[in-house]
Amino acid sequence: MTPGGLVIETHGLSKRFKERLAVDGVDLAVPAGCCFGFLGPNGAGKTTLIRMLLGMTRATAGTIRLRGHEMPSDKTAALSRVGAIVEEPRFVPYLTGRENLRVVASARETVAHDRIDPALARVGLSERADQKVKTYSLGMRQRLGVARCLLADPELLILDEPTNGLDPAGIHEFRQLVRNLVGEGRTVFLSSHLLDEVEKTCDYVAVIDGGRVVQQGAIGAIGAGEQASIPVRIGCDRPSEALALVSSLRHELGVIGLEAVVDGLELELRVPMGDGTGGIEAALATINAALVGAGHGLFRLEVLRQSLEDRFLAVTSRLGDGA
Ligand code: ATP
């Protein structure tokens, strides 16, 4: 491992296919022991970057360190404790799940055979392990793919769009599996175009768009430094008087839109993104105290919270604007 505890580190990583720059100067820093989401729309360059990480395709420019080893020059050491599923996991369909794992284990160190049963149990496939893979659902093949990764007792798992095609129950199961793997101290790097998925599963995220990483950091910090406009609904009596009162505080609170409605107020607050909800909560507490202090009956205070999706769209659309 590198001194900073980074399991993946890239600098200026680029890949050009003729005139198309699919990956453009990417600097990634993936801390050990976390789930790291690599989030971007279709065609953003996720699979191409993963293929470079695994030495499946050569970079046009830039450097990669995997578990502290240079790629691709020190490939054997770098990949020795890495498991990966790139695109859909492929198996020999007329062999059983267990037989497929035996084939893979035979090409690894002897101890890999001892890991077959525990790996099948870990992914919940013990019962179906002796049936042919062609009878498996996609979700089962994805889980068998993880079991195959576990034969290497991996420090790092790289999973390319692992929940593609899974139903909601399958997605939920897969998420649990990933969190358990992280709980064991492994690092999971997973690519996804599903914002909700990344938000629920990952601790860190890098957002890629048009081959470039546009944001990177802890999930809650995405969009930090940006200003977000957050809608708030307030239910109170005497809305027109409430409007005048909140209006007198608008500069202090960052109120940018304000109107009275039948049962209260609707307003928009401009707060810094990525500071958790502290900015919003402080503003709401002030509004609450002012209204109650002036004798208003207050029966609702509702924040329409920002999801990662909003932040993600705010970040990626900036590129579309040419900013
Ligand atoms: P998806 O989720 O749709 O798989 P992605 O983010 O994984 O998208 P990539 O598959 O890495 O994106 O593709 C990035 C860009 O590089 C796309 O414009 C794609 O068309 C292009 N590309 C990928 N592989 C090749 C190739 N072998 N030759 C030419 N262009 C390619």
Q: Can you count the beta strands?
A: 14
Largest sheet: 6 strands, mixed
* Ligands bound to this protein structure: adenosine-5'-triphosphate
Into which percent range does the helicity of residues fall? 25-40%
Q: Number of domains in the coordinates?
A: 2
Architecture of the largest domain, according to CATH? 3-Layer(aba) Sandwich
CATH superfamily heading of the largest domain: P-loop containing nucleotide triphosphate hydrolases
Task: Give me the strand/helix succession.
Answer: EEEHEEHEHHHHEHEHEEEHHEEHEH
Shape: elongated
Rounded mean pLDDT is 86
Uncertain runs: 318-323
Spatially, the strands of the biggest sheet line up as 6-7-8-3-9-10
Write a brief structural summary:
Helices cover 35% and strands 30% of the residues. By secondary structure, the chain is of the alpha/beta class. A six-stranded mixed β-sheet has the order 6-7-8-3-9-10, sandwiched between helices.
What does this structure look like?
- It is a single chain.
- The chain has 323 residues and is of the alpha/beta class.
- The chain has 2 domains: 6-218, 3-Layer(aba) Sandwich (Rossmann fold); 227-309, 2-Layer Sandwich (Alpha-Beta Plaits), CATH 3.30.70.
- It has helices at 46-53, 75-79, 97-106, 111-114, 116-122, 138-150, 168-183, 195-201, 239-248, 250-253, 278-293, 308-320, and strands spanning 6-17, 20-31, 35-39, 61-66, 69-71, 82-85, 156-160, 187-192, 204-209, 212-218, 227-236, 255-261, 264-272, 298-303.
- Helix 5 (116-122) crosses helix 6.
- Adenosine-5'-triphosphate binds next to strand 2 and helix 1.
